[in-house]
Amino acid sequence: MRRLYDKTMQMAQHKHAAWWLAAVSFIESSFFPIPPDVMLVPMVLADRKKAWFYAGLCTIASVIGGCFGYAIGYFLYETVGAWIVSAYHLEHEFEVAKQAFNDNAIKIMMVKGMIPIIPYKLITITAGVAKMDILLFTVTSIVVRAMRFYLVAALLWKYGAPVRDFIEKRLGLVTTVFAICLVGGFVLVKLLLNNG
User: Fold this and answer.
1) 3-state SS of the chain: helix, strand, coil percent to 5?
2) Structural domain boundaries enclosing 92
3) What confidence score (pLDDT) does residue 161 get?
4) Which of 81, 114, 142, 149 could form a cystine bridge with 77, CB 3.0-4.6 A?
5) What's the whole-number average pLDDT of the chain?
């Protein structure tokens, strides 16, 4: 895994780094173990003027890759999907996510899609297995992935190198708090509308 991480870091300095960033963002959403943040962080720090471009590239490629992961879950779970879940030892997490999707797919995608410690591929494949509405899946993916990557880009654009260690060590905490606040806001609005 360390060699794969190092190789991904090397791609961030390649002359075609933007293409590699898109490729990693795409495959991470369906089967690759390394998140695109590994490339996004050094690329934004190298050229902060391109922060928004890189965040947008990550978002678009990740959503398209997420649709590929959805297709794996929807059409190929018994063969490809089950192998991916097993390869990452996510059988228990998959069963929990599948039940949660049946109860409330959008909340699951909003929270788990933002948190980098939960593999996004698990979410996309599970959404396909649960046969979540594809339009709803796509729209939710766009919102969740954009929030995730633009949050990282915004922190790096604003604070530069000093925030790199913080992001690498505590990105899970930052995005978890952000996701909880977001879902809490949705719940609050729903309660106000129901009581209003």
Assistant:
1) 85, 0, 15
2) 2-195
3) 72
4) 81
5) 82
